[in-house]
Structures are given as structure tokens and as C-alpha cells.
């Protein structure tokens, strides 16, 4: 009985260590892809940010790492969703476009609320995103691979 208990304890310890290491590998993969300007996940988190260093004083910010107007990395034929928070006192609307043509929108996001824009790009290339109301300062690139 004592050998069975020791074996069960060792097996449980190995399982816990394996899960911990798997979590570290997953975290590293997500964080290494998100390093710098890019984010590489199916769901993206952006927030409108008051930024007095630009005029108009708003930018998009990656809520995970604080990058301003980050490059988003989408995959061809994948359903990608951009979740948007609006903690400012101003109306915002996220537009996703390709060659100047709108392909998705969040609709108006009122102060203190949230929204989302979903897109499933069917080809690789460089897309863009911007705020309908602040297109000069709230804008970024979407790379579709």
C-alpha cells in the first residue's frame, strides 16, 4: 500500500509540474508574439485613450501591454474579433478597412461603454484600422498572414 501511495504522489507531482510548464510555454508563446508592436491572438483588446500629446487627444492602446496604436496580426480565413473599451468622455467607432474600403465596424461606442468589430479576412495583406471620429491619431495596421 505504501508503494502505491508513493507512486500516486509521484504521478500527481509530475502531472502538476507538467501543467505548470505547459502554462509557461503557452504564456511565452503569446507574449513573444505580442512583443513589440504586434499582437497575435484571435481576440484583440483595444481601448480608447486620452493622450494630450496628440491632436485630437486620443489614441488606441493595447490593453495587454500598453502599446499605442499597435499592429494587429490576423490570419487568413480566421474569425478575428477586436474588443474595444471606451473609458473616455467622447464617442468612438473602430473601422477596419482594406485599400480605403470599410470591411467592418464596431458601430458607435459611447463614453463608458464597450463594443467590438469582427472580421474574417479571405486574403493576406495589409489592412488598416482607425476611429471614424479621430482618424489621424487613432489608427493602426492589421497584417493578415
Helix and strand layout, with pairings?
Blueprint: H1 2-34, E1 38-39, E2 43-50, E3 58-62, E4 71-74, E5 80-85, E6 94-98, E7 101-105, E8 114-119, E9 125-131, E10 139-144
Parallel strand pairs: 1-4, 2-5, 4-10
Antiparallel strand pairs: 2-3, 5-8, 6-7, 6-9, 9-10
Describe what you observe in this structure.
The protein has a six-stranded mixed beta sheet with strand order 1-4-10-9-6-7. Strands 3-2-5-8 form a four-stranded mixed beta sheet, with no helix packed on it. The chain has one helix and ten strands. It folds into two domains: 1-35; 38-144, Cupredoxins -  blue copper proteins (Immunoglobulin-like). The protein is globular and about 65 Å long. It has one helix at residues 2-34, and strands spanning 38-39, 43-50, 58-62, 71-74, 80-85, 94-98, 101-105, 114-119, 125-131, 139-144. By secondary structure, it is an alpha/beta fold. A hairpin with a 2-residue loop joins strand 6 and strand 7.
Give me some keywords for this one:
Immunoglobulin-like, 6-stranded mixed beta sheet, 2 domains, single chain, 1 helix, 145 residues, 4-stranded mixed beta sheet, globular, alpha/beta
Largest sheet: 6 strands, mixed
**Shape, principal axes of CA atoms:** globular
Element-level helix/strand string: HEEEEEEEEEE
The side-by-side strand order for the widest beta sheet comes to: 1-4-10-9-6-7
Tell how many strands the DSSP assignment holds: 10
Low-confidence stretches: 18-41
The CATH architecture category of the largest domain equals Sandwich
- What is the rounded distance between the termini? 56 Å
Range of strand content: 35-45%
Q: Remind me, CATH topology of the largest domain? A: Immunoglobulin-like
Helix content: 10-25%
Average pLDDT metric: 80
* CATH-assigned homologous superfamily of the largest domain: Cupredoxins -  blue copper proteins
User: How many domain units?
Assistant: 2
Amino acid at each position: 500500500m505504501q508503494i502505491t501511495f508513493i507512486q500516486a504522489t509521484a504521478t500527481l507531482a509530475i502531472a502538476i509540474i507538467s501543467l505548470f510548464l505547459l502554462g509557461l510555454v503557452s504564456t511565452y508563446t503569446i507574449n513573444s508574439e505580442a512583443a513589440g508592436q504586434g499582437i497575435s491572438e484571435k481576440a484583440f483588446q483595444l481601448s480608447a485613450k486620452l493622450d494630450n500629446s496628440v491632436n485630437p487627444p486620443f489614441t488606441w492602446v493595447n490593453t495587454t501591454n500598453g502599446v499605442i496604436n499597435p499592429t494587429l496580426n490576423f490570419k487568413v480565413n480566421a474569425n478575428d474579433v477586436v474588443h474595444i473599451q471606451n473609458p473616455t468622455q467622447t464617442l468612438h467607432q473602430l473601422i477596419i478597412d482594406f485599400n480605403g474600403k470599410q470591411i467592418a465596424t464596431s458601430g458607435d461606442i459611447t463614453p463608458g461603454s464597450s463594443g467590438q468589430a469582427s472580421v474574417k479576412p479571405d486574403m493576406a495583406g495589409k489592412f488598416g484600422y482607425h476611429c471614424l471620429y479621430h482618424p489621424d491619431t487613432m489608427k493602426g495596421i492589421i497584417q493578415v498572414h
